[in-house]
Amino acid sequence: MTTVGLLVLAISVVALQKPPISPEVHPDRSVTFRLVDPGATKVELGLEGADSVPMTRDGNGVWSYTTGPLAPDIYGYSFNADGQTRLDPQNPSMVKPNLVWSGNMVLVPGDPAEPWERQNVPHGILHHHFYHSGVVGDDRDYFVYTPPGYKATARKKYPVLYLLHGYSDIANGWTEVGKANEILDNLIAQGRAKPMLVVMTFGYGVPGYASPNGGNRGPDVEKKNYDNYRESLLKEVVPAVESDYRVKTDKADRAIAGLSMGGAETLYVGLNNLDTFSYVGAFSSGGLRDIETSFPGFDGAKANEKLKLLWVSCGTEDGLIRFNRTLVKWLKAKNANLQALETPGRHTWMVWRRNLIAFSQQLFR
Amino acid sequence: MTTVGLLVLAISVVALQKPPISPEVHPDRSVTFRLVDPGATKVELGLEGADSVPMTRDGNGVWSYTTGPLAPDIYGYSFNADGQTRLDPQNPSMVKPNLVWSGNMVLVPGDPAEPWERQNVPHGILHHHFYHSGVVGDDRDYFVYTPPGYKATARKKYPVLYLLHGYSDIANGWTEVGKANEILDNLIAQGRAKPMLVVMTFGYGVPGYASPNGGNRGPDVEKKNYDNYRESLLKEVVPAVESDYRVKTDKADRAIAGLSMGGAETLYVGLNNLDTFSYVGAFSSGGLRDIETSFPGFDGAKANEKLKLLWVSCGTEDGLIRFNRTLVKWLKAKNANLQALETPGRHTWMVWRRNLIAFSQQLFR
User: What is the full DSSP assignment across B201-270?
Assistant: First the structure.
C-alpha cells in the first residue's frame, strides 16, 4: 500500500518554486548571497565586518551579490530591501539569536579548520539551566560548558570562566555565534587551553533592557542594569555553579570575560570585586558612562596584587576604540598592569572569537 | 568623563526608524502582526493552524492583520510578500529552528498558564551533546532533559523517553518549539508525570536529507534514512545515554515517541524492536511508503505481550489523517491493542504538544 502524505506534497511545492540557493560558498571562499524580491527597488547586503554593498537584480527578481574570496570565518549577514531588514529565507537554520537585530550566519571554512569549526576532537557538553532570578525578578537561563572528560562523579575539579555576551544577545550568544564550546574543545584537544568550565549567563540586570524598539533604557536604568546583573551573577549564578558542578572555588580558579556591554559588566564586576576573580578580560567593551565613578577607589597597585591578568582589547575599526583607549590610559594612570590589545576589526564576533582564543589560553596557568 | 559608544548610537538609529511592534498580543488574546514593505503588492499572514489571510496596507507601507481572540498557545507564523516567505524582523528572538522553512513564533499566554509555559516550578536541565556518528557519517547532536532533582551523584535511577522530531526540524525542535522541557517540568511538579529523562536526537539517517531546496530524497534514500536513523539511535545514542546518566536500562523503563517523520521512525524502531521499548507513541505520523513491508512479520499478539502502550494519534484536519486511519486499521487487523486517538487540529505543534502532555502521563506507571 502506498501512502502519500502532506509531507511529500509540501516538499513538491518547495521543489516547484525552485528557490535560489543562499548563501552559496564557493571553493575559492567567495560567497554568493541571493534574495528573491521582484518588487524591491534597492537591495543591499550587510555582511559582518564590511560596509553594506548593493545587490544586483536579474530578470526574475532575484537579487544577488558575490563577494571576493573571504578569510575563513563565520560571517553574520542580513539583507536590506528598500530600507527594511530581511532575513534570508533560504538559510533558516543559521539565524543569529538576538533580542534586537535580525541576521543570518554563514560559515566560510578554513583549511585546516579554524578553532571555531567543529572538528574531530572530543566534545564537551552544554548544560542549559533555567531559574527565577529573585534579584532581577524574571525567569532566565544560563549555559554551562563542561570540558571533554568532565564527570560529576569523579574527584577532579575544574576552574571556571564566566563569559558574558553583549547588548542584544541572549544566553546562547557565546555558543551559537561565538562558538565558545567549539573553541574550547579544539584548544583543549591541542593542549593550548586548560580544561575548564565556561558559564554563559543572560547578561541583563533589568527586564526588557533590550528589544527591537529600543528597550527599557536611560542613565538610571543603565546603572541598575550593571548593579543587578552583578548581584545576580555573584549571588545566584556563581553559588549555583559551585554547588552543582565539580569546580574549584578559589579566586585563582575563577575568570571573567565579556564583549561590548558584557565587557563593561566584566570590568564592573571584576575590578570592583578583586577578591572574586583572578582573570578579567574586557573585549571591545563599552557602555560605562563614567569610568571614575564606575570603579570607586580603584587602586592599580592593589589590582596588580590581586589579579593574574587584566586584559583590555578592541578592534581598531570599532567605534568603541576611543573609549577603550581612554580606559587603558585611565588604568595605566592608576598604575594597573594590563594587557592592552588593539587588533584589526570592527565591533564584530570575528574579533571576539579571536579574543576568546587568545584570552582562554592564558587562564589558570 | 562621559563616553558615548557605538551602542548608544545604534540604539538611537533604531529609535529613529520607529519600527512597528510585531507581534502585539492584546489583553483579549487577539494578536496584531505587522510588516513594513511599501513596495509589496500583496502580503499574507500564515498563522499555524489556520489558512493564510491577506494583510492590509496603511499609508506608510505597514501591512497589518489583527486576529480574533486566540486560544492560549504558541503559534508559528510567517509572512508571504508577493510569493516570498518573510520572517518577522521585529521578532528576532523567536525564530523557529528549522532546516527547510522559515518562521517565527508568538506565545498567547493562558490564564492559568498552559503546561508549555514557563511556570514557577522546579526546572530540569537540558544537556546538549555533540558527537560524530559513525553510522550516518556526520557530526550531530542530541539533547538530554534531566528532571528537577536529578543528580548524577545520587543513587536514584530514572526511566527514559526518546522523543523524535519531524521532517525539517533539528535536534532542538522539541525544546524550542515543542517545549518538552517546560511540559515535563510542569507535569512533574503537579505529580501528573513520573520524573523521567527525555532524549531528543537529530532525527535523520542520511546527511542532507532536509534542505530548503528539497534535500537528498527519493524512495531508496527514504529507506536508508529510516534504517540508519534506527541504527544510530540504538547503537550510538541509547548506549551513550545509558552510560552517561543514572537511568534504568530495562525495557519497562524505555519509551519512544515522535511526530510526523519522527512518528514513522518511532513505529519503525518500536514495532521492529519489541524488546527495546515498552511504550510507543506515534503523533501524526507519516512518511512510510508501505506499512506491510515496514513491519515484516508484525504480530499483534506478540506486541500486546511486549508493549505496555501503543499510541497512534492524528489531528482530524491533518492531511495525514488518512494514512493514520489506514495504519490504525492495519494494526487492529493484526490484533494489536492500541490507543488510537483523533484530536482536533492540523499538522501542527499545537497538536504535538498536547500529544506529549497526554502521552507522557501514561508512561512508567
Answer: ----SSTT-S-TT--S-SHHHHHHHHHHHHHIIIIIIHHHHHHHS-B--SGGGEEEEEETHHHHHHHHHH
Q: What are phi and psi of A119, to 5 degrees?
A: -125, 170
Q: Could you tell me the CATH number of the domain that includes residue B249?
A: 3.40.50.1820
Domain final residue pick, A79, A108, A137: A108
CA–CA separation, B345 vs B341, rounded Å?
Answer: 12
Question: A84, B37: Cβ pair inside 8 Å?
Answer: yes
pLDDT of residue A9: 42
Same domain, B54 and B162: no
Q: Which helix (H) or strand (E) holds B176?
A: helix B173-176
Q: Are residues B66 and B208 both part of a single domain?
A: no
Cell 501514561 sits on residue: B362
Which of B82, B92, B261 is closest, CB to CB, to A7? B261
Q: Is residue A115 part of a domain?
A: no
- Identify whether B1 is part of a domain: no
The reported pLDDT for the residue numbered B214 is 79
- The lowest-confidence range among A20-29, A113-122, A216-225, B127-136 is A216-225
Strand B125-133, strand B138-146: pairing? antiparallel
The whole-model pTM stands at 0.94
Residues A55 and A202 in one domain: no
My answer on whether B48 and B183 are in the same domain is no
Cell numbers 589579579 correspond to A307
B287 neighbourhood in chain A, CB within 8 Å: 5, 7-8
Low-confidence residues in chain B, pLDDT < 70: 1-18
| Mean confidence (pLDDT) of chain A | 93
Q: Does residue A174 share a domain with residue A301?
A: yes
Q: What is the ipTM of this complex?
A: 0.94
Do residue B9 and residue A319 have CB atoms under 8 angstroms apart?
A: yes
Which residue in A19, A39, A87 is closest to B212 by CB distance? A19
* Cross-chain residue pair A129–B125, CB shorter than 8 Å: yes
Q: Are B39 and B155 within one domain?
A: no
SS (HEC) of B317-361 = CCCCHHHHHHHHHHHHHCCCCCEEEEECCCCCHHHHHHHHHHHHC
Find residue B54's DSSP bridge partners: B44
Q: Is B122 on the interface with A (CB under 8 A)?
A: no
Task: Give the CA diameter of chain A.
Answer: 82
Nearest to B153 among A131, A153, A287 (CB): A153
What are the distances in angstroms from CA B354 to CA A4, B176, B187, B360?
Answer: 25, 15, 12, 10
Tell me the pLDDT tens digit for each residue of A300-327.
999 999 999 999 999 999 999 999 999 9
A294 touches chain B (CB under 8 A): no
Put simply, whether A101 touches B (Cβ < 8 Å) is yes
Question: SS3 for B73?
Answer: strand
User: Which of A7, A81, A170 has its CB closest to that of B260?
Assistant: A7
Number of domains composing chain B: 2
- Does residue B285 sit in helix, strand or coil? coil
With CA atoms as reference, the chain B residue closest to A102 would be B92
Last residue of a domain, one of B65, B83, B108: B108
Q: Note whether residue A136 is domain-resident.
A: yes
We report the CATH number of the domain holding residue B74 as: 2.60.40.10
Q: Which one-letter DSSP state was computed for residue A285?
A: -
Q: Which domain holds residue B34?
A: 18-108
Q: Is residue B193 part of a domain?
A: yes
- Restricting to A residues 346-365, those with a Cβ less than 8 Å away from any Cβ of B are 347
